[in-house]
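Re: the request from the purification team.
They wanted to know what the chain is likely to look like in 3D before they choose a buffer screen. I agreed to run a prediction and write the result into the notebook, where they can find it.
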Amino acid sequence: MNQKPLFISDIYDALSDVVRALGGPKAVGALMRPELPADQAGRWVSDCLNREHRTRFDPEHVLWLLKQARAAESHAAMAWIAETCGYAPPVPVNPEDEAVRLQREMVGLMARMETLASQLRINHKLPGGVRVVG
């Protein structure tokens, strides 16, 4: 169970909440920086979350953290970003719902392509007098 933070004041709090939800700096560091020993990778994450430290996450790191937070059903950081930027609260998409939507869209596009191919066969000739055959 992920406990939602009571208050997020800035991006550091938001990302700290993500790191907590993902198991803490050492666990996250080991995933983000596998080339480093786990303790050192954990210190790197802690440094990136420290407002006073010069070490910072790259934008790619922030996106990775947000995607991992989504997978862990921890949405506070994304909600804070949306609110701070003047957007409506985000609604996570159920991957199964997204797959069904994409399949439905693909079936519709295929039906449209079949209709266009049929119209082309019936009404038009290709350059050089070659007719489209189905």
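For the purification team: The chain has two domains: 11-84, 95-129.
Please add any questions underneath this entry.
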